[in-house]
Design a protein that fits this description.
The chain is α+β, with helices and mostly antiparallel strands. It has four helices and 14 strands. The strands form four sheets. Strands 1, 4, 6, 8, 9, 10 and 11 form a seven-stranded mixed β-sheet that branches. A three-stranded antiparallel β-sheet has the order 12-13-14, with no helix packed on it. Strands 2-3 form a two-stranded antiparallel sheet.
Length: 297
């Protein structure tokens, strides 16, 4: 699976297979999305006006920005978020966040909103956050995951630099190649070593290990499927819905097995009862025959 899980040098900060498309139509008014701003009218009244976002806004988005998501990008991001969220469901100190803007507190460093981020050592996991303020929280993401899109630049270039400088221990990049005639998943990742990102090398099975979460990222069936696995147990990560479906399936299988045992037990008891009745009938018949023989003598 070396074709889709790669160890890449962070010096280049680029993907040779990535082409950034600014817009599907050259004259599109909002190729990257839009932001609502308050505009004051000549009569003194205020109204909302839409202004187009730029490529730089992806590196420093504001709350309320409207960024159009491609279906593949959105589905992949949501699936990973749900799997990791379910994975840490019972851990009150680890939070998994979706599209939450990071505020590093580092001067002149852009503050993106990663598709998925995993943050350990939380004091209040369930807090309703609009942004994640690293200095206030006293902790930051140990793992950031970005899903690339041909219309969103920077995931494999600028954000590598940003997350490295912000001290994010691991950065995973997933390219679903949604613009291809036959899309496929490609994954590569970096780990912070002595303040610099080093490419994470795939293991013998082609998986990339997130050391901070002990989760393996792998692609299967010639890149058609992206799956996450618990490196400690070997079990697949599932969403809450998948876990519930698996639980119900297990319950149904158990009930079916118990019903089968009950049927087999009942059939055995009935067979034994028939055999016992037949034995008693035979003994009774033999006794009757002996009585008749005795009477004839």
């Amino acid at each position: 699976m070396s074709y889709s899980l790669e160890a890449r040098s962070p010096e280049a900060y680029s993907s040779p297979n990535q082409t950034v498309y600014k817009s599907s139509t050259p004259k599109e008014e909002f190729p990257y999305g839009w932001r609502y701003v308050i505009k004051k009218l000549p009569n003194g009244q205020e109204t909302y006006s839409k202004i187009p976002l730029t490529a730089k806004d992806f590196l420093n988005p504001q709350l309320g920005d409207q960024m159009i998501q491609r279906v593949k990008h959105a589905q992949c991001s949501i699936d990973i978020f749900n799997q990791l969220k379910n994975h840490y469901m019972n851990d009150s100190t680890v939070g998994v966040f979706f599209d939450l803007k990071m505020q590093w507190g580092i001067p002149n460093l852009e503050e993106p909103a990663p598709d998925v981020s995993v943050v350990p050592h939380l004091k209040d996991k369930e807090a309703d956050r609009g942004t994640f303020k690293v200095s206030k929280e006293g902790t930051g993401p140990c793992l950031v995951i970005e899903v690339m899109s041909p219309t969103y630049p920077g995931d494999d270039t600028d954000k590598v630099r940003i997350y490295e400088k912000a001290g994010v221990q691991e950065y995973f990049i997933i390219n679903p190649h949604s613009e291809k005639a036959k899309p496929y998943y490609e994954v590569w990742a970096y780990r912070l070593e002595n303040g610099k990102y080093q490419a994470i090398k795939p293991d013998n099975q082609g998986h990339l290990l997130s050391d901070t979460t002990q989760v393996l990222f792998g692609v299967y069936n010639k890149g058609q499927y992206l799956k996450l696995k618990n490196a400690l147990t070997g079990g697949w990560l599932m969403t809450a819905q998948e876990s519930e479906a698996a639980r119900l399936k297990e319950i149904r299988a158990k009930e079916k097995a118990e019903a089968r045992v009950e049927i087999e037990t009942k059939a055995k008891e009935e067979a034994e009862a028939r055999a016992d009745a037949e034995t008693k009938a035979r003994i009774k018949l033999e006794q009757r025959l002996k009585e008749l023989e005795s009477q004839q003598k």
